[in-house]
Amino acid sequence: MASSDTAQVSSLPLPPVQYINQYTDENIRRGRAPRPPPVIHDTYSMFGNAFNADDTIIRPLESQGIKRLYPQHFDRRRELRKLNHSLLVNFLDLLDLLVQCPDSPRRQEKVEDLSLLFIHIHHLLNEFRPHQARETLRVMMELQRRQRTETAQRFQKHLDKVCS
């Protein structure tokens, strides 16, 4: 029979106990908790690639050696739609090519075209990230402001009841 007690399992591992034990209330109050690591000022390595701390977060396609498929100044929404449409058409062309002649050398060209389109779509989406972060922050701050206003109004209402 199945047990009614089901165990919840986290997809993330628990923090190492040796770190948890160093950040007790007592250690924090006495100033014995470990300090955060120093800020990176020069270069660092991540996933085997070297990065400079002063690098721009979203590098232009040209600096990565990738041919740009759209102009420098453009409507991002329109370009994303065009890239998405091109992606679908190229995928259908690849399928047609695979059905007609699976050993064709054009197959690799189509795969490279699809790869280039995916790179451009990802690049355009990543250019939206700063805007998305600002908008998320704006919404969070608006929610906090509304909650504080409501709390202040409730407090004022209770204060008025107590004073009267």
TrEMBL record:
GO terms for molecular function: transcription coregulator activity. InterPro entries: Med7/Med21-like (IPR037212), Mediatior_Med7 (IPR009244), Mediatior_Med7_sf (IPR044888). One of its GO terms (biological process) is regulation of transcription by RNA polymerase II. GO terms for cellular component: core mediator complex; mediator complex. It is found in: Nucleus. The keyword ATP-binding does not apply. Its main location: nucleus. It holds the Pfam family Med7. Keywords: Activator, Nucleus, Transcription, Transcription regulation. Belongs to the Mediator complex subunit 7 family. Component of the Mediator complex, a coactivator involved in the regulated transcription of nearly all RNA polymerase II-dependent genes. Mediator functions as a bridge to convey information from gene-specific regulatory proteins to the basal RNA polymerase II transcription machinery. Component of the Mediator complex. This is Mediator of RNA polymerase II transcription subunit 7. It comes from Timema tahoe.
